[in-house]
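User: structure tokens for this one?
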Amino acid sequence: MTRYNGNKDIRIDEIAISANNLQNLLELIFSNMEAMPKKQAHSLIGLAYDISADVSLWLEKKEQENLQS
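Assistant:
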């Protein structure tokens, strides 16, 4: 998983992979929520939150770059 810290220049294909990973993870959580132990669900939701934050930060940076150019 690509970790985005706001400084590293991440390409669109890398962030697309992160977005796809997020979608797959959320699908896994949703389809197995009833059978999944609460701690596991909590950990996976935390991972999904981290991935979504990376995507969001990247999008915000690109928006700022577009506004400045």
